[in-house]
Design brief:
The protein is an alpha/beta fold and about 220 residues long. It has helices at about 30-40, 55-60, 75-80, 95-100, 115-125, 140-145, 160-170, 185-190, 205-215, and strands at about 1-5, 15-20, 20-25, 45-50, 60, 65-70, 85-90, 100-105, 110, 130, 145, 150-155, 175, 190-195, 195-200. Strand 6, helix 3 (about 75-80) and strand 7 form a beta-alpha-beta unit.
Length: about 220
Amino acid sequence: MRFSRYAGNPNIGVFAVANESVSFIAGDADPLFVKDVEEALQVETHLTTVAGSFVVGSLVVMNSNGAVVSGLSEESELSRIGKILPVTALDDPLNAAGNNILANDNGALVNPDYSKDVIKAISDALGVECVPASIAGINTVGSICKVSNKGCVCHADASEEDLATIKDVLKVEAQKTSVNHGSRMVGAGILANSKGALIGDITTPIEMGKIEDGLNLY
């Protein structure tokens, strides 16, 4: 586990996304941030924009099978990502895929406001079962949780029922925590896979312990 920040911002999960082997990072990222991602997660990194924006982590969700990206993405961006991983553009007003979808290689939780057709498209793209769910009463499950194939950390107000849903669908245990000195936007403050994690650099030691425990980083 390592500390980092992107352009002075500890909400690093907004600007990058990763699976077990690859990370897509905001195109203007500092080389030191890119190095932090590579070393913490042991992944190959690629700089890009999505929908002309640097908030790559908010607009992309992916697992080992594929990526789902904002439907506002440009053809050049889809081509860049598609050369590395099968990519599907999300044709829905809720197109911030990274905020609205929480996925690993076992399953996915999705914003319950998505239609059945959109949920099927997400399921096909990621190759896993997709279940509509809110966590701690919040529909943007990707912004308040971070999951890998080994564990999950989620919003501190998640209920026992929420934790059971995560375990049932994503097949991992979940730990409630905050990040970046009290932020409940757990997904925004962490970048993780089964090999490691990068966390915002104002995260407290107590939060760090919970994140390490939740993501099984031992």
